[in-house]
Amino acid sequence: MKLVAGALLAGAAGAAPAAPQLPAAETIPLWPEGVPGAKPGLGPERVADGHVANVSEPTLTVYGPAVDRPNGTAVIVCPGGGYVRLSMQREGEQYAAWLGTLGITSFVLKYRMQEFGHPAPLRDVLRAVRIVRSQAARYHIRPDRIGVMGSSAGGHLAASAGTLFDHPLGRTGAPLDQVSARPDFLMLLYPVITMEDPAAHAGSRRALLGPNPSAADVRLMSVEKQVTSATPPTLLIHTQEDRTVPVENSILFYQALTRAHVPAEMYLFEHGSHGMGMRAGLGTASDWPRRAQAWLKARGLLDPAPDHGR
User: Fold this and answer.
1) pLDDT tens per residue across span 147-200
2) What topology does CATH give the domain 44-299?
3) How far is Cα 100 from Cα 67, in angstroms, rounded to an integer?
């Protein structure tokens, strides 16, 4: 089932648990009126081993909550992949299945990457928040309970949404720009945060900003420098064993949140390599979904919404 532009704008609107099988999902075009800065010569998407690359038509895939426990909370999931590819299965569908067991409606974002560069991914994630918020009634979710979750480069994109939600680069002049793009909470797993050395992930920086980025772009997309008191409450998960994206990335963001008096919680585990997803056998790191569930519950995000209490 697809949304057309008219309908869209009219709505302006011990171990990790095993994820259940996902039901059939709905896919929504992110830009039904036409992708801004479209590049029609890029060719088809490349899909292999649970990954997607060469994205030119961004989408949201919707996964409903467990049928007997919807609570009105929504999460937009940004898979990682260094702004080169998207780990759609491990860091997209798997998370959506887990979130569904908590009563949460998930929207897995397929966003543009290195073929477009900055600011296309930012525009895609902010457009996703605006679509979900504008369609809250349609999906039986609360417009004040929309979070963004991301892993690795997807964590950078989620953190960008939480810090740059009102930036002019996130607008295209579409009517939907009038809808707030601010997430209500963030969940960041081993996220890329800074674009500055020595903690930067060079591959993500190159894919997003190009081989010779300007100092202004590096600073803007070092999202720890963009935190304000308006940044939403944030959960951070990272490990000491991460040799791809240093744990300092999460620490930098947590410190910025603390300085800005933004509610934040951070779990730094000893074991678990980059891209661990929901793997078992990683010691206490494999329990991160339970910690995340407790954080969501403590913030009231798992409480039934008034119209879901039946």
Assistant:
1) 999 999 999 999 999 999 999 999 999 999 999 999 999 999 999 999 999 999
2) Rossmann fold (3.40.50)
3) 9
